[in-house]
Amino acid sequence: MPRLRSRAPGAPLCAALLLTVAPLPAQQWLHPDTAGRTNQSIFRQLDLPAPNEYRTASGRPGPRYWQQRVDYVIRTTLDSATHRVTGSERVTYHNNSPESLGYLWFQLDQNVDNPAVSRTIQGAAALPRRKLSEEALAFLAPPPNAAGGYAITRVQVVSKAGAKRDVAHVLSGTLMKVPLPAPLASGQTVDVEIDWSFVVPTPDGSHNGRGAREQVAQGWMYQLAQWFPRASVYDDVNGWQTDQFYGQGEFYLNFGNYDVSITVPRDHIVQATGALVNPEQVLTATQRARLATALAGDRPVFIVGKDEVGTPATRPAGTGPLTWRFRATNVRDFAWASSRAYVWDAAGFRYTPGAPVIELHSLYPREAMPLWDSLSTKAIAQTMRTYGRLAFEYPYPKASNIHGPVGGMEYPMIAFCGARPVQGRVTPGLAYALVAVTIHEVGHNWFPMIVASDERKWTWMDEGLNSYLEGIASLEFDPAWPKARLPIVAANQLGYLRNRDQVPIMTESDFIHRGFGPNGYTKPASGLNILREQVVGRDSFDPAFRDYAQAWMFKHPQPADFFRALQQGTGENLAWFWRGWFYTTHANDQAITRVESQGTDSLGATSRGRFYHRVTLENQGGLVMPAVLEFTYTDGTKDRVRLPVSIWRMNEKRFEYGRFGDKELASVTLDPDNVLADINQENNSWRRPTPAVP
């Protein structure tokens, strides 16, 4: 930087003279390091992992990015008398890493309900000091011989010649280690076969909460999720990701192809991840014709109507169980649902005329009417539109929404959602609840089913991003959507933000001790909306968000990749925002501490107006934000000024704003629309003092 020199006679007023006229105050950081005397500016760059050939400084996959692939062939049977699911799977593990692997790790999420190995059960706190129901006691303190979790009956490695060899697998809580007879070299594959079974739990008898059974008037409904041993992820950041499943941090999984055959009672209807490849064997001619009609249009058509549920006409002629076969390409998981109680409606969706059809399916019992039949499939279609525009167009051939005991869960191409009329009565709140949970769970196909972040560690990377898009989709479904129900409205988060007993968003999922919903869902969602609407603007934010999503389709981003991608795409230094909103629990509390006006004649600036108004702002919380000021004048007129967050660069605690004008001030209001998550509105306004009565 050139050295400042004094002004020569007749030269223009220079920066040096201005500095002498208005000297800068000493640096005032919100969080100073008084002992180490180091740079503690909230605007300083984040200390992120160094970019490399796998992950670049622009937040994109690098030229040597790699990830593993795992393919599954599964044969499974549901016994509706015992509620037991029995399965056999062949896992083909592709080692795309640059290293040799001597063993594989598998996730056994059902074991969270096995008292012998579950760390969730073993580490549970003492019982409350009151009488408990039998169900509550069984859940909080299951007996040692409780039958939850997997029965693993076979683990074998298959040689290239087809020979099968038993391996001494090791169970470790919700994980299983499978040693390999020989190291698996880079670029090679290995086949592992596993036989297993478990009893599908009831909702109140499981710490899993993702798959369950429920009995309704027409029979049992089964929702099967996290139901088979799944290979853990080995990546460039963690090596093997072997975090236990405690029931809170959800999934981190590999992409691959699935071929799944599901044998169920003949009177059941099945829906699952992937395309149904044998409709001629499991659907009647009438149902196939109705399905063709539904997919040709965009309005729901009943494939199984309310009055047809459970009747012989809804099933192909014959006796004995039926096997439904599904295939899915490039997915990271597989889930399914089965019941004789389902009403089924479907519709088609196309992004443009002539584009491939995306099948939209809704399955629900009679008890879910008259709600699901009018809203579920429409809400799926809204998800396709909004998420397709703001992230990327849906790449899979179908999306299904299944009603049952699971209130809200997501898997590739299939969602499990609650919301059911009470005694046939549908309230506006219930309708909003169904649309919201449908958009949210179907929206998870984008995050994390396709943009496949590690939710076992970072809940916000899929729940937060998904909740952000959910809020926009909800408003596009109904512009009159109540603001109090929107996850993107900052004012809805104030109670949580005021609470001192919280942890930063950048806290691993299983270490979030309370406020899991606000921490992982609504605080990140509303924060992203603040960025979009109040900091960088939609024209900058939307392309940056879309670029991130598209760059990481079918890949595994990390938090640093997201932070870098948004900063690169918007062209803004957002370190202050990531640091404050994501890495700390500091809150925004801006205050107006002083307002004064002086005549412009005292400044020698009468040509600029009658008054020079000064407003002193202070940061009384630990967060910086832009500032919005609304000026109301004594003649009743108003105007606003938006001040960028950079006003706090030199002094993070105090800023004095000044402006010329001809009108006398009546009041000044800070954040007049309550959009900046200011936790204390009591100090956000100033009113002209009432003249004293003589």
User: Total strand count, please?
Assistant: 31
Shape: globular
Helix content: 10-25%
Q: Summarize model confidence as the mean pLDDT.
A: 94
Radius of gyration in whole Å, from Cα? 30 Å
Structural class: alpha+beta
Strand order in the largest sheet: 5-4-8-2-1-14-18-16
Oligomer state equals: single chain
Span of the ends, CA to CA: 59 Å
The amount of beta strand, in percent, is 25-35%
Query: Total number of helical segments?
Result: 13
Descriptive notes:
The chain is α+β, with helices and mostly antiparallel strands and 694 residues long. Helix 11 packs across helix 12. The protein is globular and about 100 Å long. The strands form seven sheets. The protein has an eight-stranded mixed beta sheet. The protein is built from 13 helices and 31 strands. The N terminus is likely disordered. Helix content is 21%, strand content 28%.
Helices and strands in order:
Blueprint (H helix, E strand, L loop, with lengths): L14 H7 L47 E11 L4 E11 L6 E7 L11 H4 L11 H7 L10 E8 L5 E3 L3 E3 L2 E10 L4 E11 L12 E5 L2 E6 L5 E2 L2 E2 L3 E2 L15 E9 L4 E4 L2 E2 L2 H4 L2 H12 L4 E4 L17 E10 L4 E4 L3 E7 L8 E7 L7 H19 L7 E6 L4 E4 L2 E4 L10 H16 L16 H18 L16 H5 L17 H20 L2 H14 L7 H12 L4 H8 L7 E10 L11 E9 L7 E7 L4 E6 L10 E8 L3 E6 L14 E3 L7
Parallel strand pairs: 1-14, 21-22, 22-24
Antiparallel strand pairs: 1-2, 2-8, 3-7, 3-11, 4-5, 4-8, 6-7, 9-10, 10-19, 12-13, 14-18, 15-19, 16-18, 17-20, 20-21, 23-24, 25-26, 26-29, 27-28, 27-30, 30-31
Which terms summarize this structure?
694 residues; alpha+beta; 8-stranded mixed sheet; 6-stranded mixed sheet; 31 strands; disordered N terminus
